[in-house]
Amino acid sequence: MTLLELNNITKLFPVRRGFFGKASEFVRAVDGITLSLNEKEILGLVGESGCGKSTLGRIALGLMKPTSGDVIFDGRDISSLSKNDLIKLRSRMQIIFQDPFSSLNPRMPAGDIVSEPLVIHGRCKNKERLSAAAALLESVGLKAEHVYRYPHEFSGGQRQRICIARAIALNPKFIVADEPVSALDVAVQAEILALLKELQNKFNMAYLFVSHDLRVVSKLCDRVAVMKSGKIVEIMPAAKIKEAGHPYTRNLLASVPIADPFRREKIDCVANAADVC
Amino acid sequence: MGLLEIKNLRTCFSTDKGEVPAVDGVSLSVNKGEVVSIVGGSGSGKTVLGLSILRLVSEQGRIADGEIIFKGVDLLKLPLVEMRRIRGRKISMIFQEPMTSLNPVFTIGEQIEEAIRIHNPKISKHEAEENACEILNLVGIADPVRRYSSYPHEFSGGMRQRVMIAMALSCRPDLLIADEPTTALDVTIQSEILKLLESLQAKFGMSIILITHDFGIVAQIADRVYVMHNGKVVEDGDVRQIFGAPKDDYTKKLLAAVPVL
Ligand SMILES: Nc1ncnc2c1ncn2[C@@H]1O[C@H](COP(=O)(O)OP(=O)(O)OP(=O)(O)O)[C@@H](O)[C@H]1O
Ligand SMILES: Nc1ncnc2c1ncn2[C@@H]1O[C@H](COP(=O)(O)OP(=O)(O)OP(=O)(O)O)[C@@H](O)[C@H]1O
Ligand SMILES: [Mg+2]
Ligand SMILES: [Mg+2]
To answer: Is ipTM strictly over 0.85?
Structure first.
């Protein structure tokens, strides 16, 4: 069953004039992407920094309007929904933002942050809120006693896990996970990936999993889409990523650093680095 | 004598449970031209250690004990005015969360120009602009002239991270503290950035403290490695020794969890 369909999505952003540039130029952040995601599918999205992955993720959730193209979720065009329907839909789709700190309210303790979706959508009574919050924090490897701490009192990786806990609170159908494990050490990362997998099986969750870590993507995802300059250049089963044919994907594969200091490659110096810095 | 010598550093935060140490008796040294990597679990105290070196720990925290000797001077004993002169000139830091350390109301170009002026106060406006564009180019921002007047929120996550790198490098520090500098970058750009760091290290003898959880990067560029766990250094040594013959159980656990392609 198809859960999400993106039809010919394009997104342009205006660029302010440079100090000797002309006005009204545009960045083509997403350039005619058509993509579909099945229920319970994990689709990896990899590609160059700035190629439009986060933008596509936001559009898929209706958090940003595309310049052109349609987003169909569960058979319905989300641009045609009434406000009420959209709120209901929001409980079924969540996002883990790429930048954890700026997506967390600095004046709210962690416990309130992760349990807020439950309260908004009437899934939990006030007196149950604290225990629900503690359970959510524990599910991502934080401690129950952390409920009273504020975002700035956590480490980078701890903040990232607060974002994950908030996104899974409602057991949504669909999560856009934008670099969700980038700030985690490999041991915690493995635990979080196992948790995401477990939720996928238990609640039939689907993910759009944006990541630049091909090792993680090949392990977790069902399919992988490779993006470059706003377009999808290749899409394949994740198990086949090593056999990818597109030159850009081959280049990505070749650039993954090998975790073995005995096989260190000599790095050529950047010629003009010294003059500029 | 090394460039930086940290002795028995303790940094604590006051919480409702009293003072808890985030960095708990850490000793560490960095020689000139050396790349020292700090790895360790989420919440183990790596960022707080980096911030302590610059004396930028937040208000609830304090450096309770220890010495941070940089070029023979204990930074913890310096008056604040002199400490400010060291930040961004002698020691600069690439912060873990770029969006929070870029100023949302200034353009990308303006912020890099300002960083260049710290190192080179007499530079003309025009030269500073040109220089800033070249640095942006060096960190792989395509079309820097056109993107010069963009604001931070108009950049992607990885583009912001590269702006941070450009700013930290533009003042040509003796010591660069890079806190997860490439987490938001795809591997092709990451390898360009690593090349750039190595070039500056080779040319100027810049020393680098590289905080990362990516063992691929550690294997690629670190000379020595410190492994942190719960605020303490549990193991340190030459990079080949850490990978080839780890002694500590936590180090072994981390190495075993490294994902492979
Ligand atoms: N609000 C905005 N205004 C103007 N330009 C924007 C805006 N948001 C994104 N862009 C531009 O759109 C392009 C794609 O950005 P996006 O954040 O989607 O990239 P990304 O693939 O997520 O990159 P990264 O891996 O670095 O996070 C970039 O060139 C970016 O500068
Ligand atoms: N302002 C603060 N108040 C209270 N505790 C804090 C504060 N800042 C950090 N901590 C705690 O100190 C410990 C060390 O934090 P630090 O940010 O140094 O971790 P880290 O090793 O950088 O982790 P990560 O890899 O997740 O970024 C963590 O347990 C964190 O919760
Ligand atoms: Mg992004
Ligand atoms: Mg940190």
So the answer is: yes
